[in-house]
Every structure is written in structure tokens, then in C-alpha cells.
Amino acid sequence: MIVDIDAGNSRIKWRVIKNGAPDYKPPVTDIKTLLAAVETEGPPTRIRLSSVGGRTIAEELEKQAGQWGCQLQQAGTTREAAGVHCGYLEPSSMGVDRWLALLAVRDQFKGACVVVDAGTAITVDLLNRQGYHLGGYIVPGFPMIYQSLNRGTSNIRLEPVSVADCLPGKTTDEAVSHGAYLMIKTLIEASRTTLQTKTQPVKVIVTGGDGSALIDVLSGDCIYVRDLVLDGLEVMFP
To answer: Which of 17, 77, 196, 233 is most buried by a 10 A CB count?
Structure first.
């Protein structure tokens, strides 16, 4: 059994692979809960890890992997892997979750793509047809937008609107929610325009916790993938 783990800024997403079939598990918020949940699945033979949450998670997993007698493989961003060339001046400074998402997109879609991960922060990365990462953007995610406005305004309490929309809002909550969607949509469409040529169609590949809502306001060739980071682990560590 292989365990794939994506330890992000606010949640730990994970899945187990038995007989080649992935089984996605409910996200958890701390490493001890994760280890207890993995224990109920039985001891793994291999753990593949992506972590942007500091050394503590990796150290705890390394210790537990030793007790289970299994291999721990922790991903890192490199200059090149699996046909993708990193566009960062210093590859090690690029978040490994973004790197793994790029590897997964290259493996699954091959052509020019805008890769969007809608989580605590929203990242947008540009990958051309030849597999070169042209760089990207990092902006606040939807919860962070609400939190910043709630902290910076008085006498109002903003609440997220359940419907994804970009039309002018008719209430304060709608104005904030729709404005956030329009900002992110505009960024993604501008990124698509940067990659677009007469002979190079561009797909938008969206993942992350808010990805399924975000894709509702996007136009053109847009695809939602449940978890590109976990898929990228499988590309990096076949």
C-alpha cells in the first residue's frame, strides 16, 4: 500500500493506493490525526510526501515510517523533472505543491496550460507546449479575501456567498464575493492570453478546495482535477 500526502497551509490531504487504485480520504488538520488514520489502513510499504508546512510534519512521518519499516519519499522542486523545466530563478524557492501540480498537468495534458490551485492562497502558473514553466502568480484565496476585509472594515461582518458569480453584487456580501471571483477570473484569462498563439490552444486546469466553484465562472477549455499535487507525487516517484 502506498500513501500519498499533501500537507498544505491549512489542511493535510491524502490518499492510499492499493492494487493501483487510488482511494481518497477525508482531509485532516494535524499530523497526529493523519498518522492514526493511516494506521487503520494497515502499514504502508511507501509514503510519498509533499509538504509546505515546515519540518515538523516531515520529521514525524520519517519517525513513523521507520517504525512501519517503509520508505518515505519527500518531493522537492528541481530545475527539471518529467519533461517540465522550472521557470524560477532559484527552483528551491518555489513551493513544491506548485511544482508537483505542473508535473501532473504535463503528464496528463501535454499541451500549453494555465495551472490554477485554489486553496488558502490561489496560485496561477503558466506552462507552455514545450514543457517550460514561464512563472506564475500568487494571490489571496477566497477565505483570505474575506478575512482581510473583515479585519479592515468596521460595523459589518462579511459572509461568503454560495453561488459563484461575476455579476455586479446587489448586497455587500455579493459585491465582495462576485468581485473576488471576477479578480481571479481576470488573472486566469490574462494568463491564458499570455500563452495563447494562433497554433497553440491553451487549457485551464483547476485544482484545490475552491477549484470546483471557481471553474463555474471560467470560460473556454477549462478542466477541474481533484488533486494535482497527489497526482504529481506519482509522476515524481513512480
So the answer is: 233
Secondary structure (3-state) at 215: helix
Nearest to 180 by CA among 143, 212, 208, 154: 143
Q: Pick from 100, 104, 102, 11: which is nearest to 50 by CA?
A: 100
**Does 107 qualify as catalytic in the annotation?**
no
Tens of pLDDT, residue by residue over 2-40, are 999 999 888 899 999 998 899 999 999 999 999 999 989
Beta bridge partners of 206: 116, 224
In eight-state DSSP terms, residue 223 is E
**Burial call 121-133: b when 16+ CB within 10 Å, e when fewer:** bbbbbbbbeebbb
Q: What is the pLDDT of residues 80-98, one digit of tens each?
A: 999 999 999 999 999 999 9
Label residues 90-117 b or e (16+ Cβ within 10 Å = b).
ebeebbbbbbbbbbbbbbeeebbbbbbb
Sign for the CA dihedral angle at 103, 108, 109, 110 comes to: positive
End-to-end CA distance of the chain, in Å? 13
Helix axes 142-152, 172-195, angle to 10 degrees: 130
Give the residue carrying C-alpha cell 473556454. 220
Please pick, among 4, 6, 97, 227, the residue that the annotation labels catalytic: 97
State phi, psi for 29 to the nearest 5 degrees: -110, -10
What's at 90, amino acid-wise? E
Q: Exposed e or buried b for every residue in 21-53, given b needs 16+ CB within 10 A?
A: ebeebeebeebeebbebbeeeeebebbbbbbeb
